Amino acid sequence: xxxxxxxxxxxxxxxxxxxxxxxxxxxxxxxxxxxxxxxxxxxxxxxxxxxxxxxxxxxxxxxxxxxxxxxxxxxxxxxxxxxxxxxxxxxxxxxxxxxxxxxxxxxxxxxxxxxxxxxxxxxxxxxxxxxxxxxxxxxxxxxxxxxxxxxxxxxxxxxxxxxxxxxxxxxxxxxxxxxxxxxxxxxxxxxxxxxxxxxxxxxxxxxxxxxxxxxxxxxxxxxxxxxxxxxxxxxxxxxxxxxxxxxxxxxxxxxxxxxxxxxxxxxxxxxxxxxxxxxxxxxxxxxxxxxxxxxxxxxxxxxxxxxxxxxxxxxxxxxxxxxxxxxxxxxxxxxxxxxxxxxxxxxxxxxxxxxxxxxxxxxxxxxxxxxxxxxxxxxxxxxxxxxxxxxxxxxxxxxxxxxxxxxxxxxxxxxxxxxxxxxxxxxxxxxxxxxxxxxxxxxx
Length: 444
Ligand code: DOR
What we know:
Layout: E1 4-16, E2 19-28, E3 31-36, E4 42-48, E5 53-56, E6 58-63, H1 76-85, E7 88-93, H2 104-114, E8 121-127, H3 136-139, E9 145-151, H4 164-173, E10 178-181, H5 185-191, H6 203-206, H7 209-226, E11 230-232, H8 238-245, E12 251-255, H9 257-261, H10 266-271, H11 284-295, E13 301-302, H12 311-314, H13 331-340, H14 346-361, E14 377-387, E15 406-416, E16 419-423, E17 426-427
Parallel strand pairs: 1-4, 1-5, 6-7, 7-8, 8-9, 9-10, 10-11, 11-12, 12-13
Antiparallel strand pairs: 1-2, 2-3, 5-14, 14-15, 15-16, 16-17
Helix pairs in contact: 4-7, 7-8, 8-11
Bound molecules: (4S)-2,6-dioxohexahydropyrimidine-4-carboxylic acid (DOR).
(4S)-2,6-dioxohexahydropyrimidine-4-carboxylic acid (DOR) binds at residues 64, 96, 155-156, 181, 277-278, 307, 323-324.
């Protein structure tokens, strides 16, 4: 058969549902048209991928891109630039912007701001509040909506629903899997006096493991009571891993690269407030517990929780310093370094960053390298050693907690729906991002 393709990715090691093997991929109209040996076929462009691994596009299901309202830290253009430079093909963005993404107008505004500016595909969470409960069933089904996100402990921004009664009302009306920031607000308030001025090592003492576990237990109980599904974001404790193992029917969960890479107190001693996140990075013991969750399949997805703040904001003395660090651009290289160190397999990395998000959020035509699916690829060089630097980071915040860290394994290409968006560190095709399509939001 003498086929013609727009693009052929030639002789890359393709990692997909079929295992790992050297194959060609033919792309037509932004979709994968054929996988195999396409030596006889013609193409508008043939890209030599020999020696490189072609992964299904990495989806980062938790980022904060700060637009509108907080654009001194980041905006949708700079955030998505950082994403594609790091090999990320789609992001789910969080609602704690200003105004908060809690109305149809605010949601539509974000979608409109993203078209022709964002470099990767995108979806937005809608914030669940006491005030918008009745609107959530409609809002969560808007095209481009990743679902409802609720903060049950306060973090950056004004979103907070801390009591079971209000949470129950939200659970009762929604249908899709909702995502939660799980730290118990009552316990956080009680423990505030434990913060030590100028000492971020006291951050995980204040926001302790019990606050995280209590919140996660409350959410699982509410999910069972109401027959709904929850997604617990950024797991930070070994106790939550063991607890969630017994509740996988109602609860999925996320791990972040920083909770898998850093440990207290060393990270606070070395990085100060740059390591300050909510929920906090904890002791090596908890880090080992989260790795156990990765090994055992308990963790469903990786999210970077990319939460940029300017260095000026971060230089305030703890606890006046805001919580959050950049991460969307470093997710792939850091995790490939963990792959090279033998901490997880490449197949498990793909499961966590493409198949996992697709399964949890019912994403249409993304999450695997299969004919008919979007031609989203993260192309990586597993042998390449590089040093992560602030200069490399495209986020407006301009810094990474991993400045100076040497890793093995590097993203060299980002394809979004057949377009070569990033290649060898250059932004090749800007501003062509589109909303991610979900099975529960597709409209005729
Ligand atoms: O540390 C954090 N920062 N955790 C969050 O949940 C929010 C985020 C932010 O938006 O800054």
